[in-house]
Amino acid sequence: MLRFAVVCFVVFALDTLAVEIIAHRGASHDAPENTLASVQLGWERNADAVEVDVYLSKDGKIVVIHDENTKRTTGHDGLVHKMTWAQLQKLDAGSWKNKKFKGEPIPLLSQLLETIPNGKYLVIEIKCGPEIIQPLVALLKKTKTPPSKTAIISFSFEVVAAAKKQFPKRPVYYLAGVKQNKTTHRWEPAVDTLVKKARDAALDGLSLGFKGAADDSALLGYLRRMRKDTGSHKLGFYVWTVNDRRMAKMFTDVGVDGITTDRPAFLRSIKDK
Predict the structure, then answer these.
(1) CA–CA gap between residue 153 and residue 121 (Å, rounded)
(2) The model scores a pTM over 0.90
(3) Are 271 and 33 in contact (CB under 8 A)?
(4) In b/e form, how buried is each residue of 244-272, taking b as 16+ CB within 10 angstroms?
(5) Is residue 68 part of a domain?
(6) Do residues 221 and 190 lie in contact, with contact meaning Cβ atoms separated by under 8 Å?
(7) Hey, which end of the chain has fewer CB within 10 Å, N or C?
(8) Residue of 19, 17, 35, 18 whose CA lies nearest to 27
(9) Is residue 10 part of a domain?
């Protein structure tokens, strides 16, 4: 997720351009994803935003973890929605990444909301269903978290549509993966389809994932069309998950609003050689 002609000694620094850098599950290349350690490292590495994933625990707590099952990141085979917060917080969510993170717990979303620096925001990806929305409404009200400090995303159109109704002042984006049809070589879903979905639910934009080469003319054409159509409808256009310099340059040249990456510091300091 590559082949561009490069000019010697020309610096390509994303922080000089109008593109946001979003730390994917925190600075997850160097710290265990979706933990306090990873989120804090994302802020330290000057990410404009940090993205985290959330589920509801058995007792209704909003917990930060990517998978429905805790096994991959904790070694314990258990379903998040069938475990209480008391059970979840006893798990070690750090050792799988590196022994120095041993004992790093699964955090509550409320703990991460407290870390957001001025001028930054937390991107909350809802991994479960719309049942989490009312608890999220209550949490953001209780913590007095302003709309400018959060954005909400999900792969579920049902979830983002419901979230936008509950959070009319908070940015809500629809997540989708875009793939190339092996027969037609077209990139799908079509631009029109995705833009229409966003507009129908009064969403604030789209966050799209691509797998392709930076010299793919069909992909470049798709991206330019997406940028034009989202722009004309005043929709945001974000991309994920980008850890490669040439793809980052392509997306930046097209004019995306933000790039989600596991390596926020790397994207801040990219240089074409």
Answers:
(1) 13
(2) yes
(3) no
(4) bbbbbbbbbebbbbbbbbbbbbbbbebee
(5) yes
(6) no
(7) C
(8) 35
(9) no
Residue 151 inside a domain? The answer is: yes
Supply 49's token pair. 């935003």
Domain that holds residue 161: 18-268
What is the tally of structural domains in the chain? 1
- Tell me the CA distances in angstroms from 89 to 55, 64, 67, 75, 143, one per residue in order: 14, 11, 15, 13, 21
CATH number at 85 reads: 3.20.20.190
Q: Which residues contact 151 (CB under 8 A, 6 or more apart)?
A: 49, 121, 122, 123, 124, 170, 171, 172, 173, 204
Residue 145 CA to residue 166 CA, distance in Å, equals 15
Q: How many CB atoms lie within 10 A of CB 227?
A: 17
Q: Residue 251 is encoded by which pair of tokens? A: 């997306």
Q: For 102-154, how does the pLDDT look when each residue is reduced to its tens digit (9 = 90+)?
A: 999 999 999 999 999 999 999 999 999 999 999 999 999 999 999 999 999 99
Distance between CA 23 and CA 245 in Å, rounded? Answer: 15
* 5 located within any domain: no
